[in-house]
Structures are given as structure tokens and as C-alpha cells.
Amino acid sequence: MATEDLKTIPLRGSHYRSDADDGRFSFSKLSRTIATVTVGEGEEDFYIHLELLCKHSHYFDKLFKGQFKEGGSTLTTLRDVDVPTWTAFMDFVYNVQPILSYSKSKHYRIDESAPDLTELYIFADKYDVPSLRTRIVSAVWRVLLMSDPICKGPQPHRLPPCKDIGLAFGNLPETSPLCRLFVDIHCRNYDDDKVGDMEKEARLNIPVEFDLAVTRRHEKLRKLMVKGDIGVMYDLNMKDYREGESEPFSCLCSFRGGPHKIHAQKSEDK
Known about the structure:
mainly alpha, Potassium Channel Kv1.1, Chain A
């Protein structure tokens, strides 16, 4: 049973060249005010358009524009954030490349300088960057539930890496979309017969909160199966992990046109 590496290219956004009528920015209309963000224990300075920073992050919007702002200052220090994480965030803010891309060999392209997706999600949770959280969940979905572009369906036996489970459940609320996705993928894909001894040993150190969440998820799934609402070979639905959805949809998902086109269907009962 495979655990797919959640370390990938820096995440990227698409906010600087679109027209104003779709709620996104263009440089021609962007304020010239620049914020200076000092990052890490080495205190390296980064410069970013204040308007873009506040647009993406509710935390920085309150810091620089809220009632507690300090005399119009555009300076702040983040000693708990490392340079690769902040660099990936700035790449997300400014660039327009896809969140994940593929090499000519049809595999995910890896950048060793990029932070883990889970670490970047923790940053996005702490500094309240909902658009980045959404992109990361989509990326994890693709890495763990889908293979390369020639794949026509979900992968049956990929599991979240133990390291990422520990990071997520040690730093995020259990109800966060990423934690729920890790639990649901584990419940769907775990097969003890396909797990190696090293992986089993690593899973002994997984936080107990994860095991409890898995137990509750299995109980819920069993009830749905008894009622006939879902089958044993169910699929997950990406809509369940989008922020802002009031109630989860059922575990139904059909794939049309390969992994780049996902058509999710809402169930009748959930």
C-alpha cells in the first residue's frame, strides 16, 4: 500500500492579471503600498503588495487595516514562519501557474525546496488564508486519490503519510477540511494486508485523535451501508472538503475525461 509524498511544487494563485469585474486584481489598479514582512529566525525581509496580502489573508487584513493597526505601519515580523513556507505563499499570491503540474514522464513534478503541503496548510490556517487552504486540499486530493494524467479513476490504496497525519492533527482542529480528508482517505483506502511492516510501525505514533476520528467515521459509514445509502466500494466527493459547505455530500464521485475534469454528483439524501 502506497503513501504518496505530499511535497510538491510551490502553490500558485491567479490574482494579479484578471479584470476587476471578477473580484480579482490587475497590477494596473493595484495600490503601490508595499508591506515588509520579516520571516524566520534569520529575520529575512520580504516585500509584498499590501493590498494583495490583505486580500488573501484575513489575519493580515486585520493587522494592517483593522482597528488595532499601529499608526499605519506596513512592517511585521513572523519568526514562527520559515523562508520556504513564506516563499511558497508569495508564489501563490503572485504567480499564475497550476497548483500541481506534471513532468514529461507523466509524474508530479517535485521541487525539493518547496514546503510540505501539510505544513503550508498549517500556515494558511494560522494566518487565515482560505484560498490557499482550498488549493492545498485540492492538491492533496489529486496526489492521494488520483495518479498521473493517463489515470481514469481514483487510486485504491494510497494513504496519507504518517508524518502529515501527525502534523495535521497536532496543529489543526479535527474539523478542518484537511484533517477530515486524511481520515476519510484512510477509511476508504486502508487495507492491512497491503501495509508493510515499516508503515505499520510508523502508524503506532499517529496521534490518538486521528484513531478516534477514524473510528467515528467507520461507525458513520457502517450505518450508511446498513441503510443502503452507500455501497462497500464507495468513492469520496471533493465537495465534502470545500470550506463553506454547510453539510457534507454523500460519497459519490464520477470521473469524466480523466483527473483534470471531476464531475461530482450530490446524493438524494445527504
